[in-house]
Amino acid sequence: MIVVLVGYMASGKSRLGKVLAKRLNYSFIDLDDFIEYQEKSTINELFKTKGEIYFRKQESLYLDDILNSQEDIVLALGGGTPCYGNNMDRILNSPSVRSIYLKASINTLINRLEGEKDKRPIISHIKEKDELTEFIAKHLFERSPYYDLSPYKISTDGKSIEEIIQELLDILI
Fold it and tell me: What's the domain range around 25?
């Protein structure tokens, strides 16, 4: 089985994915890290040198490779992955895939992202908290319809990692 974790940046996909994979004895793949390894370049550099269209095409190809794997995997998607091409359709129509939306409120996301702006190219230019709030609210509004296609949803607000992992395990086992 392949467990696909969907959600906005800082919703906990990678952090929770690593713990979940360990508990299930599955492999863990962070799609962004996988792309960087395959392309021998950072996502930031790919956007700068080859553009977003190139990146999104490669992202879809690598996603297909992983979805076609016979291995047991927990896959943390990039925040934008479900929103481009027909990526979400491929995820939902893959027979051995379970897609779970890790849903975090705007306030939770702001609190997590405020100190990480340097590591997140998409928000690194934002200086003020109200600008960040507006950016995240707008972005989340645009992306939520794709995330909401996941048949399973878990709110991560105010919960410990252990509580969320238990909810994930309840869905999967």
Answer: 2-165
